[in-house]
Amino acid sequence: MKKIVALLLVLVLCMGMTSAMADKLGSYMYTNVSKANAAGEKDGAYQADTTICAVVLDDNGVIKMVKFDVVQVKLGFTAAGACTVEAGTVIASKEELKDGYGMRKASPIGKEWFEQVAALEAWCVGKTLDQVMAAPLEGGKPTDADLVTGCTMTVTDYLYALQKAVELAK
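RESULT FIELD:
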């Protein structure tokens, strides 16, 4: 949790210099938790995905800058209920992992997570929230011709975080 708060603070501080020239700065983060139950002798797992968004808007609500990151925490447990992750384990964000995240091999465009999220961020800049949210999606993945060349991953969590960050922008 400290890492998430620290990452958010770093984003806000970095964007603070930009926000002096902008009208509004907003940030938001939320966590989805999923669970795979242990069955018989099979181990189970919890996974928590925290999506983080920071955004700078101009006077007209146009996105001047946006930054996304995700902290994905996987905690395994045995059928007996013992945690399989050592206490004090440091969990790096997807942005910190870079190529270590391992999305490139599963990507139809051969791009890693940090490259795809950078394409999404660049695509959002210069648009209003309404324009971004109007982008066509199929199964949560973009179908916009300008975006799919750089981003083919599911973007619904990022768009939700962006929407909330814009709503909270001051």
